[in-house]
Amino acid sequence: MKFTTRDIFVGFIFLCVLALLIFFTIVKIQEIKDRKYVLARLAKQLNDTSASNWCDELVAKRRVALSKILDMYGQDIKKLWQTRKQGGNSKENLIRLGTIYLRKSAPEIQKYEIENSSWSWEEANNVLIRIQNNLQDKENKDRWRDFDTMVRFMLEKDILRIVRKLSFLPREKTVHQFRIEKTIKRKSKNEYLVSLNPGEFDKDKELLKELIENGWKSFGKKIRIEWVNDADSYKVVSNLNSSRSFVNHKKRIMVIANLASVKTVVHEFGHVLGFDDHYYTSWNNENCYYMQESRLEDVMSSSEKGSVTKTHWKILEKAYPLDGTVSANFSYFYQDF
Residue 332: beta bridge partners? Predict the structure, then answer.
């Protein structure tokens, strides 16, 4: 059988197209794999970046292994967060707000008191072991959610410590940053007006307003909220995919997680006002764990038990002067006010 020049040319083009299809298919499969194991890749990058620190060498394999497990079961864990609903709390202890529930807050701590919590890769691994030892245990749903929270916390802190070379300082040496917000106006000596977009909570905005205003009212001073619908103001949205509430200044959103406490809403609104977190994280290089300290009387330090203190109002007075002049962002030591 003879092949013409045209047949050979067509066959060559066909093989080239086939080779390109195979190549792009392989690339696409690799992209899917990379997307699937995004946390594991991040953990591996941390291992490659970290210096010869014996703690990081000790947890290197565990960091990647636990991150990979979270990648593999991430969607299932996400569903566990979404179906948590009341989370074992009685209806009497919950407030319905839009699509989420808020927990009524614990009694406020008035005296100066410090609370400590520790986080480590070993602790996260122990949670996974408890899951694997009894796959039918009813508490495993909560353990998977705890595992998710712990792995993400450890990765976040490891990035700050290893990649960004952040020094974790004790509370007496920690400098906080205050962000001035143009959506906040000083109306009088004792009152501040804040523009806020109700976002997903438009139908329950009066309840949300009441919760925030009650939290930011003390020592004869208060915050008043006015609802607006513009791009400059922070928009309030819900989070059903984890236990994390937060404020994203770049996107200008205030995120409230399902089953957050009312105090957590007050805490996150503090970020809208311009306050920094008053958590104090330290790294124990001898025993390879993070220690987080919180001042229980300070709502920006303890979002479960804290309250708005005289110090918060003094900082706000500096940030938003009565004469209406716009000040610049500034640094502060909490204990100096």
Answer: 176
Q: Is the pLDDT of residue 307 over 70?
A: yes
The two tokens of residue 284 are 């124990």
| Domain range summary for the chain, segments of one domain joined by + | 171-336
Helix (H, G, I), strand (E, B) or coil at 277: coil
Q: Which CATH architecture has domain 171-336?
A: 3-Layer(aba) Sandwich (3.40)
* pTM over 0.70, yes/no: yes
The DSSP output letter for 51 is: -
Give the H or E element holding residue 5.
Answer: helix 5-36
Q: What is residue 258's predicted lDDT score, i.e. its pLDDT?
A: 94
User: 159-174 burial, b for 16+ CB within 10 Å, e for fewer?
Assistant: eebbeeeeebeebeeb
**pLDDT of 87:** 61
Q: 61 vs 7, 66, 168, 305, CA distance in Å?
A: 55, 9, 24, 37
Contact assessment for residue 113 and residue 295, using Cβ atoms and an 8 Å cutoff? yes
Neighbours of 7 (CB within 10 A): 11
